[in-house]
TrEMBL record:
Transmembrane segments: none annotated. Coiled coil: none annotated. Residues 4-146 form the UspA domain. Gene3D superfamilies: HUPs (3.40.50.620). Belongs to the universal stress protein A family. This is Universal stress protein. It comes from the Archaea. It comes from Salinadaptatus halalkaliphilus. CDD domains: USP-like.
Length: 154
């Protein structure tokens, strides 16, 4: 099975590990000349909370999710890294329930592989708070590489 498209799904907590995520993706994308899709899904509440910081006047109904994703950390840093390494990439944003939108994005771009980050949580925390990464892994239409960073806390 060829790996033509890799979806790197990121969120704001991934800013602290952007270099490690990029390195993980480059291990695959570089030798295989894959295209990387940097995907960032966000909720309406998240958008409204950070809208002014991002320089947007538009309310959530009038926003281009791809444009918002471009301005959210760590997307810009990842794009710069892939550009410097000569890896083809594109940026995709989705607005809605994060795990569902990331899976939808993987389907839309016909991803052959996904890379997602996560953090250490106890089973009780997962039961009470849920786990976006776990939902993505369980619903993914392709193999998933899970990058766990024990230092990332929410």
């Amino acid at each position: 099975m060829a790996i033509d498209t890799i979806l790197l799904a990121v969120g704001p907590m991934d800013a602290v590990r952007a270099d490690e995520l990029a390195e993980t993706v480059l291990e695959i994308a570089g030798p295989l000349e894959s295209t990387v899709v940097i995907g960032h899904a966000f909720t309406e509440d998240e958008y409204e909370e950070f809208r002014e910081d991002l320089g947007f006047d538009a309310r959530v109904d009038d926003v281009d999710p791809d444009e918002v994703a471009t301005k959210r950390p760590p997307v810009g840093d990842l794009a710069e890294t892939f550009e410097a390494e000569g890896v083809d990439y594109e940026i995709r944003g989705e607005l809605g329930e994060v795990s569902t939108k990331v899976v939808d994005m993987a389907i839309d771009v016909d991803a052959d592989r996904m890379v997602v980050g996560g953090r250490r949580r106890s089973p009780a925390e997962k039961a009470v708070l849920g786990s976006v990464s776990q939902e993505i892994i369980l619903q993914a239409p392709c193999p998933v590489t899970y990058f766990r960073d024990l230092d990332v806390m929410e």
